[in-house]
Amino acid sequence: MTTETQSADIQLIQRILPHRYPFLLVDRVEDIDGITSARGIKNVTMNEPHFQGHFPGTPIMPGVTIVEAMAQTAGVMLGVGMDMIDTELLIYFMNIDKCKFRRKVVPGDVLEMHVTKVRGKPGGKIFKFHGKAVVGDEVAAEAEFTAMVDRQEG
Protein backbone atom coordinates (compact mmCIF):
# COMPACT_ATOMS: atom_id res chain seq x y z
CA MET A 1 0.00 0.00 0.00
CA THR A 2 1.07 3.52 -0.69
CA THR A 3 0.80 6.54 1.59
CA GLU A 4 0.31 9.06 -1.22
CA THR A 5 -3.20 9.86 -2.36
CA GLN A 6 -4.35 8.43 -5.65
CA SER A 7 -7.27 8.80 -8.04
CA ALA A 8 -9.28 6.56 -10.34
CA ASP A 9 -10.80 7.62 -13.66
CA ILE A 10 -13.73 5.78 -15.27
CA GLN A 11 -11.45 3.28 -17.03
CA LEU A 12 -9.78 2.26 -13.76
CA ILE A 13 -13.13 2.18 -11.95
CA GLN A 14 -14.38 -0.35 -14.52
CA ARG A 15 -11.30 -2.50 -13.92
CA ILE A 16 -12.20 -2.63 -10.21
CA LEU A 17 -16.01 -2.72 -10.05
CA PRO A 18 -18.23 -5.09 -12.06
CA HIS A 19 -20.98 -2.45 -12.34
CA ARG A 20 -21.89 -1.07 -15.76
CA TYR A 21 -24.50 1.31 -17.17
CA PRO A 22 -27.11 1.97 -15.90
CA PHE A 23 -25.85 0.98 -12.45
CA LEU A 24 -22.33 2.38 -12.41
CA LEU A 25 -22.93 5.43 -10.23
CA VAL A 26 -19.50 6.99 -9.78
CA ASP A 27 -17.58 8.81 -12.53
CA ARG A 28 -14.29 9.44 -10.77
CA VAL A 29 -12.70 8.78 -7.38
CA GLU A 30 -10.11 11.19 -6.02
CA ASP A 31 -8.12 11.64 -2.82
CA ILE A 32 -7.82 7.88 -2.31
CA ASP A 33 -5.78 7.46 0.87
CA GLY A 34 -5.07 3.72 0.96
CA ILE A 35 -8.14 2.08 2.49
CA THR A 36 -8.75 4.98 4.87
CA SER A 37 -10.74 7.53 2.85
CA ALA A 38 -11.71 8.65 -0.63
CA ARG A 39 -13.93 11.14 -2.48
CA GLY A 40 -16.15 9.94 -5.32
CA ILE A 41 -17.67 12.21 -7.93
CA LYS A 42 -20.95 11.64 -9.76
CA ASN A 43 -22.10 14.11 -12.42
CA VAL A 44 -25.89 13.83 -12.25
CA THR A 45 -27.47 14.11 -15.72
CA MET A 46 -31.05 14.09 -16.98
CA ASN A 47 -30.45 11.13 -19.31
CA GLU A 48 -30.13 8.63 -16.43
CA PRO A 49 -32.91 6.02 -16.65
CA HIS A 50 -34.28 6.43 -13.11
CA PHE A 51 -35.37 10.00 -13.92
CA GLN A 52 -38.03 8.69 -16.34
CA GLY A 53 -40.11 7.53 -13.39
CA HIS A 54 -38.61 9.28 -10.34
CA PHE A 55 -40.44 11.62 -10.80
CA PRO A 56 -41.85 12.65 -14.20
CA GLY A 57 -41.58 16.43 -14.43
CA THR A 58 -39.61 16.64 -11.18
CA PRO A 59 -36.48 14.48 -11.55
CA ILE A 60 -34.92 13.52 -8.21
CA MET A 61 -32.10 10.99 -7.78
CA PRO A 62 -33.43 8.10 -5.67
CA GLY A 63 -31.94 7.95 -2.19
CA VAL A 64 -30.98 4.30 -2.57
CA THR A 65 -28.85 5.16 -5.60
CA ILE A 66 -27.07 7.84 -3.57
CA VAL A 67 -26.22 5.22 -0.92
CA GLU A 68 -25.12 2.84 -3.70
CA ALA A 69 -22.85 5.59 -5.12
CA MET A 70 -21.23 5.94 -1.69
CA ALA A 71 -20.72 2.17 -1.55
CA GLN A 72 -19.22 2.09 -5.06
CA THR A 73 -16.81 4.84 -4.00
CA ALA A 74 -15.77 2.67 -1.03
CA GLY A 75 -15.33 -0.29 -3.38
CA VAL A 76 -13.01 1.66 -5.65
CA MET A 77 -11.06 2.84 -2.61
CA LEU A 78 -10.58 -0.78 -1.49
CA GLY A 79 -9.70 -1.88 -5.02
CA VAL A 80 -6.96 0.74 -5.32
CA GLY A 81 -5.83 0.61 -1.69
CA MET A 82 -5.54 -3.20 -1.58
CA ASP A 83 -4.27 -3.56 -5.16
CA MET A 84 -7.30 -5.52 -6.37
CA ILE A 85 -7.45 -4.12 -9.90
CA ASP A 86 -8.48 -6.65 -12.58
CA THR A 87 -9.42 -9.24 -9.94
CA GLU A 88 -13.18 -9.61 -10.55
CA LEU A 89 -13.84 -8.04 -7.15
CA LEU A 90 -17.37 -8.29 -5.78
CA ILE A 91 -18.55 -6.36 -2.73
CA TYR A 92 -21.92 -7.02 -1.10
CA PHE A 93 -23.94 -4.85 1.28
CA MET A 94 -24.41 -6.47 4.67
CA ASN A 95 -25.93 -3.58 6.58
CA ILE A 96 -26.95 0.07 6.23
CA ASP A 97 -27.35 2.15 9.41
CA LYS A 98 -28.02 5.75 10.39
CA CYS A 99 -29.11 6.62 6.86
CA LYS A 100 -30.48 10.13 6.48
CA PHE A 101 -31.48 12.17 3.45
CA ARG A 102 -31.23 15.93 3.77
CA ARG A 103 -31.32 17.46 0.27
CA LYS A 104 -32.72 16.56 -3.14
CA VAL A 105 -30.17 15.60 -5.79
CA VAL A 106 -31.26 16.69 -9.27
CA PRO A 107 -29.85 16.76 -12.81
CA GLY A 108 -27.02 19.26 -13.07
CA ASP A 109 -25.75 18.56 -9.56
CA VAL A 110 -22.23 17.32 -8.93
CA LEU A 111 -22.57 14.77 -6.15
CA GLU A 112 -19.47 14.13 -4.04
CA MET A 113 -19.34 10.98 -1.93
CA HIS A 114 -16.91 11.26 0.99
CA VAL A 115 -16.24 7.81 2.46
CA THR A 116 -14.07 6.80 5.39
CA LYS A 117 -13.31 3.35 6.71
CA VAL A 118 -14.62 2.78 10.21
CA ARG A 119 -13.46 -0.83 10.55
CA GLY A 120 -11.62 -3.42 8.47
CA LYS A 121 -8.07 -4.51 7.66
CA PRO A 122 -6.17 -5.16 4.44
CA GLY A 123 -6.83 -8.74 3.41
CA GLY A 124 -10.02 -8.82 5.50
CA LYS A 125 -13.49 -9.65 4.24
CA ILE A 126 -15.72 -7.35 6.33
CA PHE A 127 -15.47 -3.56 6.24
CA LYS A 128 -17.58 -0.81 7.77
CA PHE A 129 -17.69 2.69 6.27
CA HIS A 130 -19.15 6.10 6.96
CA GLY A 131 -20.36 7.92 3.87
CA LYS A 132 -21.50 11.48 3.33
CA ALA A 133 -22.87 12.66 -0.02
CA VAL A 134 -22.72 16.41 -0.62
CA VAL A 135 -23.67 18.87 -3.32
CA GLY A 136 -21.58 22.01 -2.97
CA ASP A 137 -21.55 22.68 0.76
CA GLU A 138 -24.90 20.97 1.44
CA VAL A 139 -25.20 17.43 2.81
CA ALA A 140 -27.55 15.40 0.62
CA ALA A 141 -27.29 12.08 2.48
CA GLU A 142 -25.20 10.17 4.96
CA ALA A 143 -25.05 6.60 6.17
CA GLU A 144 -22.92 3.95 7.78
CA PHE A 145 -22.70 0.71 5.83
CA THR A 146 -21.03 -2.65 6.18
CA ALA A 147 -19.89 -4.70 3.22
CA MET A 148 -18.31 -8.06 2.52
CA VAL A 149 -15.44 -8.31 0.04
CA ASP A 150 -15.58 -11.40 -2.19
CA ARG A 151 -12.40 -11.92 -4.18
CA GLN A 152 -13.25 -14.11 -7.17
CA GLU A 153 -10.76 -16.84 -7.90
CA GLY A 154 -9.78 -16.69 -11.54
UniProtKB/TrEMBL annotation:
Keyword Lyase in annotation: yes
Gene3D superfamilies: Hotdog Thioesterase (3.10.129.10)
Broad class of the protein's primary localization: cytoplasm
rRNA processing is among the record's keywords: no
Keywords attached to this entry: Cytoplasm, Lipid A biosynthesis, Lipid biosynthesis, Lipid metabolism, Lyase
GO molecular function, a single term: (3R)-hydroxyacyl-[acyl-carrier-protein] dehydratase activity
One Gene Ontology CC term in the entry: membrane
Active-site residues, as the UniProt record annotates them: H54
Entry's localization field: Cytoplasm
Catalytic activity: a (3R)-hydroxyacyl-[ACP] = a (2E)-enoyl-[ACP] + H2O
Biological process, per Gene Ontology: fatty acid biosynthetic process; lipid A biosynthetic process
UniProt cross-references to InterPro entries, sorted A to Z: FabA_FabZ, FabZ, HotDog_dom_sf
Enzyme Commission number(s) of this protein: 4.2.1.59
HAMAP family documented for this protein: FabZ (MF_00406)
Protein family: Belongs to the thioester dehydratase family. FabZ subfamily.
Function field: Involved in unsaturated fatty acids biosynthesis. Catalyzes the dehydration of short chain beta-hydroxyacyl-ACPs and long chain saturated and unsaturated beta-hydroxyacyl-ACPs.
Name of the molecule in the record: 3-hydroxyacyl-[acyl-carrier-protein] dehydratase FabZ
Organism: Falsiruegeria mediterranea M17
Lineage: Bacteria, Pseudomonadati, Pseudomonadota, Alphaproteobacteria, Rhodobacterales
